[in-house]
């Protein structure tokens, strides 16, 4: 078992602590929180060992799970890597692109494994159809959330939209060519709602909308590709796969046939991939343990986390938010 320590005992940190304590791949050594009163409270309530000294915890483990506020990601990761520890780091990987690139250099120097917590990669709806998403040419994503003060210290692009940025980059095998975006601050000092249009070198276009001031929650992406339409509902964990193939010469009574202006006939049919219930956070943590033990590349590498951050920052720089 890998000895692991958690940095940060906020809302998400406590979830990580519970799951790591349950996992058969890890031995939870303890945790550190910059707020000592919160650390002692969590320790008293759940029984986890609280380390008041950050270095002592890092020295005692093989893996450091960083679930601190984004602004402290870099320093926590840098300290851990320089001590030769593998790191799991919540999204976004760091606050700036310079910090992320520095972590990539440190990773290469100290030869450690690193994974970024883009949890939607482990959403069972997405994993059920990911291999069916091949060369999408148009993508539309909506990630809408009711207002929650937690997370408003960063723009909605880094808080919510980055989930979809990472998912899209994982299926579009092409570089981003152009970014157009707009964002507006309604309640927070940073943008609460944003829309972005990404154009890729291969011709694919992705439209992304993210809002944290909606009246209802929605996390849905739609992928359009040659002879297929694939919809992924990350919130409800449902998928819809509609495909087309050449129509048979003698279609059945219940076959759905479309004919275009050129007279070409296509048959529409539906696929229903099986979706297995899972705990996506536990799966991502266990997958990182597997990558360490088997010396393989993590599902969401530090490089991929850096690429998602790069695009997110390009989106933010593309708009001058105006407060209503």
Automatic annotation (TrEMBL):
<dbReference type="GO" id="GO:0000166">
    <property type="term" value="F:nucleotide binding"/>
</dbReference>
<feature type="domain" description="Gfo/Idh/MocA-like oxidoreductase N-terminal">
    <location>
        <begin position="2"/>
        <end position="118"/>
    </location>
</feature>
<dbReference type="InterPro" id="IPR051450">
    <property type="entry name" value="Gfo/Idh/MocA_Oxidoreductases"/>
</dbReference>
<dbReference type="InterPro" id="IPR055170">
    <property type="entry name" value="GFO_IDH_MocA-like_dom"/>
</dbReference>
<dbReference type="InterPro" id="IPR036291">
    <property type="entry name" value="NAD(P)-bd_dom_sf"/>
</dbReference>
<dbReference type="InterPro" id="IPR000683">
    <property type="entry name" value="Gfo/Idh/MocA-like_OxRdtase_N"/>
</dbReference>
<dbReference type="Pfam" id="PF01408">
    <property type="entry name" value="GFO_IDH_MocA"/>
</dbReference>
<feature type="domain" description="GFO/IDH/MocA-like oxidoreductase">
    <location>
        <begin position="156"/>
        <end position="216"/>
    </location>
</feature>
<protein>
    <submittedName>
        <fullName>Oxidoreductase</fullName>
    </submittedName>
</protein>
<dbReference type="Pfam" id="PF22725">
    <property type="entry name" value="GFO_IDH_MocA_C3"/>
</dbReference>
């Amino acid at each position: 078992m890998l000895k692991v320590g958690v940095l940060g005992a906020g809302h998400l940190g406590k979830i990580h602590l519970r799951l790591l304590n349950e996992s058969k791949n890890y031995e939870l050594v303890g945790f550190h929180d910059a707020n000592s009163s919160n650390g002692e409270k969590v320790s008293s309530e759940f029984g986890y060992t609280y380390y008041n000294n950050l270095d002592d915890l890092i020295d005692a483990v093989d893996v450091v799970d960083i679930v601190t506020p984004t602004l402290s990601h870099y320093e926590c990761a840098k300290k851990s890597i320089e001590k030769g520890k593998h790191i799991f780091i919540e999204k976004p990987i760091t606050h700036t692109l310079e910090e992320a690139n520095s972590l990539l250099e440190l990773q290469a120097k100290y030869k450690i494994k690193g994974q970024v917590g883009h949890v939607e990669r482990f959403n069972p709806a997405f994993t059920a159809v990911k291999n069916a998403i091949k060369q999408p040419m148009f993508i539309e994503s909506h990630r809408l959330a009711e207002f929650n003060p937690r997370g408003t210290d960063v723009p909605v692009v880094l808080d919510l939209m980055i989930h979809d940025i990472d998912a899209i980059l994982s299926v579009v095998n092409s570089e981003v060519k152009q970014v157009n975006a707009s964002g507006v601050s309604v309640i927070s000092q940073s943008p609460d709602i944003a829309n972005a249009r990404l154009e890729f070198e291969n011709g694919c276009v992705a439209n992304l909308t993210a809002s944290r001031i909606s009246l209802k929650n929605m996390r849905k992406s739609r992928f359009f590709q040659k002879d297929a339409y694939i919809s992924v509902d990350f919130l409800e964990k449902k998928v819809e796969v509609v495909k087309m193939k050449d129509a048979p010469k003698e279609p059945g009574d219940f076959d759905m046939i479309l004919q275009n202006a050129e007279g070409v006939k296509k048959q529409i049919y539906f696929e229903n991939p099986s979706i297995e219930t899972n705990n996506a956070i536990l799966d991502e943590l266990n997958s990182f343990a597997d990558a360490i033990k088997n010396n393989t590349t993590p599902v969401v590498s530090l490089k991929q986390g850096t690429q998602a951050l790069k695009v997110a920052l390009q989106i933010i720089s593309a708009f001058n938010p105006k407060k209503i």
